[in-house]
Amino acid sequence: MERTLSIIKPDGVSRGLIGDVIKRFETNDIKIIALKMVHLTQADAEKFYAVHKQRPFFTSLTEFMTSGPIVPMILEGENVIEKNRTLMGATNFKEAAEGTIRRDFATDIEKNIVHGSDATETAAEEISFFFNQFEMNER
Ligand code: GDP
After folding, report:
1. How does pLDDT run across 87-106, given as a tens digit for each residue?
2. Residue 31 belongs to what domain range?
3. Is the CB of 2 within 6 Å of ligand 1?
4. What's the total number of domains in the chain?
């Protein structure tokens, strides 16, 4: 069993898509282990996306991610890191495969509804960015 971090971004929350996104996970054998709604500060968002600090879209991305509440979730399942990335679709919704979350709901390369960790190490780091040991439901 593997775990990953998913985030429903501010556009997904404000457009009332929390249920639709969760449904995609639950109908694809992915278990939701932990979930909450938080509103990041600018400093939080800059820390979370530190890897993109040099990118031209860094300011815009961090401002977008602080523009409203988000829903981080820990997902669990077999091969869930890759499985979640497949369900999300390509970063640019115009290039995302049919039936993916981003293809169906995204409106913009930046406002693309969901985040998903891309590897084992980043999944562990991103999970502990949002959740403490009592929230991980490990008992
Ligand atoms: P992801 O792993 O598919 O989310 O993609 P990346 O890690 O490459 O980028 C992180 C996030 O930055 C994306 O999900 C988008 O919200 C945003 N982003 C990526 N590329 C661009 C871009 O070219 N322009 C803008 N404005 N935002 C981007």
Report:
1. 999 999 999 999 999 999 99
2. 2-38+72-135
3. no
4. 1
- One-letter amino acid at 106 equals A
Residue 134 has pLDDT above 70, yes or no: yes
Q: Is residue 80 a part of any domain in this protein?
A: yes
Whether residue 59 is contained in a domain is answered as no
Q: Give yes or no for residue 91 CB within 6 A of ligand 1.
A: yes
Rounded percentage of the chain residues whose pLDDT exceeds 70: 99
39 among known catalytic residues? no
Residues 6+ apart with CB under 8 A from 90: 96, 97, 100, 102
User: Among residues 77, 81, 115, 127, which one is catalytic?
Assistant: 115
Q: For residue 122, what is the domain's CATH number?
A: 3.30.70.141
Closest atom of ligand 1 to 112 CA is: 16
Q: For the chain, list the strands marked E by DSSP.
A: 2-8, 31-35, 71-77, 114-116
Whole-number pLDDT of residue 136? 86
Q: Can you give the pLDDT at residue 139? A: 60
